[in-house]
């Protein structure tokens, strides 16, 4: 079928032939299908969706548009984790060395922050010298030798997705469930993994604000994994307030290291352990989640997880001393506090607003080519359910540039809600799907 006929068929609610889908995406990757026709197809998919067979063909076509890595030289089941994004979500920084320390090879290809959410690559690059742009050969070597490698998407992995994501970003088709799911899964399956744990965030700081939407996305990605003969488990986790207390790249690195020392905030620690335990089960290193968590606790207590992080940092060109001496990480020149307007309890935090305040401060990016400041960010001194007194600091702002400070402090104060009584605590792991 010609591109016009395919677009028309999907626009009218028809089912597309898998071979036609594959040729359409291959032609788009080659440049034979122009952006305006792919834009029309994405909008048709936005309104009409893709059934499981179509979605499997679409994902496989994006996956096979480039190199699919072969990590068979590395023994064992290779397992990765993917998060749909949130504020203060530095889980990958502690999860990867934890899983690797317990014997699970972790090939991890991550992204940068965009919009209100942070990016794993930006956090890693705040460690002096850390390189995320490694060759495929180095990636394979480090997964085998170190048990883990954390890099950015290469030009040869799922190039159709890279091209298509940029187009979706400017055609109002980013928030389309089948296109989100196929984008994530095509990149992850190209890494050479055997299994995947999904962290699907839900709440005010997530892309999926409603539980039913998060559940639908998780089930869609699990379905793609099944179609591709990969084991996939998903945890729906709470993002109705920032995870942990640090928001900002170098600040989040510190909190991630502290987690490997057993000294991080409870919410961040719990979500990290829950996700990593699922990786150990999928990787065949523990028969149950309970036994996996016991292994992880031992890796923290005996220091092997922290040593694994230092090994990863050194292997990727970073300064491992920064894991022991935080003064070697980027430091903001000044701090300012946001204070509580009244006595009471923190009853809620608009997490997306906190993320956007971080962008305004320079910790995040509005555009892909924006330059970020790795030193700046926030320490959340009070979180939901905690008591406050009038005039007491609730957020500490770490800043370099005074110009946005007034606006940032106003944004943060507006993001907080206060009341006379503490709200009931929300579960951190809302649901598990497999």
From TrEMBL:
Top-level enzyme category: transferase
Swiss-Prot/TrEMBL keywords: Glycosyltransferase, Transferase
Record domain Pyrimidine nucleoside phosphorylase C-terminal: where: 345-419
InterPro entries (alphabetical): Glycosyl_Trfase_fam3 (IPR000312), Glycosyl_Trfase_fam3_N_dom (IPR017459), Glycosyl_Trfase_fam3_N_dom_sf (IPR036320), Nuc_phospho_transferase (IPR035902), PYNP-like_C_sf (IPR036566), PYNP_C (IPR013102), Pyrmidine_PPas_bac/euk (IPR018090), Pyrmidine_PPase_CS (IPR017872)
GO MF terms held by the record: thymidine phosphorylase activity
Catalytically driven reaction(s): thymidine + phosphate = 2-deoxy-alpha-D-ribose 1-phosphate + thymine
Keyword Transferase: yes
EC numbers: 2.4.2.4
Subunit description: Homodimer.
Family: Belongs to the thymidine/pyrimidine-nucleoside phosphorylase family.
PANTHER family attached to this UniProt entry: THYMIDINE PHOSPHORYLASE
Name of this protein: thymidine phosphorylase
């Amino acid at each position: 079928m010609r591109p016009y006929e395919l677009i028309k068929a999907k626009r009218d609610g028809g089912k597309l032939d898998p071979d036609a889908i594959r040729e359409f995406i291959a032609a788009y990757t080659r440049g034979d299908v122009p952006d305006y026709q792919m834009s029309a197809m994405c909008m048709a998919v936005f309104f009409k969706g893709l059934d499981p067979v179509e979605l499997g063909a679409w994902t496989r076509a994006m996956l096979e548009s480039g190199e699919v890595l072969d990590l068979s030289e590395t023994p064992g089941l290779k397992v990765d984790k993917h998060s749909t994004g949130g504020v203060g979500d530095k889980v990958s920084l502690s999860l990867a060395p934890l899983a690797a320390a317990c014997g699970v090879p972790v090939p991890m290809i991550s992204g940068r922050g965009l919009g209100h959410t942070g990016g794993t690559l930006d956090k890693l690059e705040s460690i002096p010298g850390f390189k995320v742009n490694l060759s495929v050969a180095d990636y394979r070597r480090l997964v085998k030798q170190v048990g883990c490698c954390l890099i950015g998407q290469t030009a040869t992995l799922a190039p159709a997705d890279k091209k298509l994501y940029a187009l979706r970003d400017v055609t109002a088709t980013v928030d389309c469930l089948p296109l989100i799911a196929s984008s994530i899964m095509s990149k992850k399956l190209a890494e050479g993994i055997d299994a995947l744990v999904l962290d699907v965030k839900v709440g005010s700081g997530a892309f999926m604000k409603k539980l039913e939407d998060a559940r639908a996305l998780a089930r869609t990605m699990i379905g793609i994994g099944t179609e591709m003969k990969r084991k996939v488990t998903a945890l729906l986790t709470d993002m109705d307030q920032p995870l942990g207390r640090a928001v900002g790249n170098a600040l989040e690195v510190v909190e991630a290291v502290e987690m490997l020392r057993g000294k991080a905030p409870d919410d961040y620690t719990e979500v990290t352990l829950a996700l990593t335990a699922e990786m150990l089960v999928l990787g065949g290193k523990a028969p149950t989640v309970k036994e996996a968590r016991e292994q992880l606790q031992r890796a923290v207590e005996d220091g092997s997880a922290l040593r694994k992080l230092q090994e990863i940092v050194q292997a990727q060109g970073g300064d491992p001393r920064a894991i022991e001496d935080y003064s070697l990480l980027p430091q903001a020149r000044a701090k300012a506090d946001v204070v509580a307007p009244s006595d009471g309890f923190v009853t809620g935090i608009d997490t997306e607003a906190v993320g956007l305040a971080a962008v305004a401060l320079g910790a995040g990016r509005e555009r892909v080519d924006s330059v970020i400041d790795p030193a700046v960010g926030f320490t959340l001194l009070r979180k939901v359910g905690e008591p406050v007194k009038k005039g007491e600091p609730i957020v500490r702002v770490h800043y370099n540039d005074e110009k946005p400070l007034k606006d940032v402090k106003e944004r943060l104060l507006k993001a907080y809600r206060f009341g006379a009584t503490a709200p009931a605590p929300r579960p951190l792991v809302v649901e598990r799907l497999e």
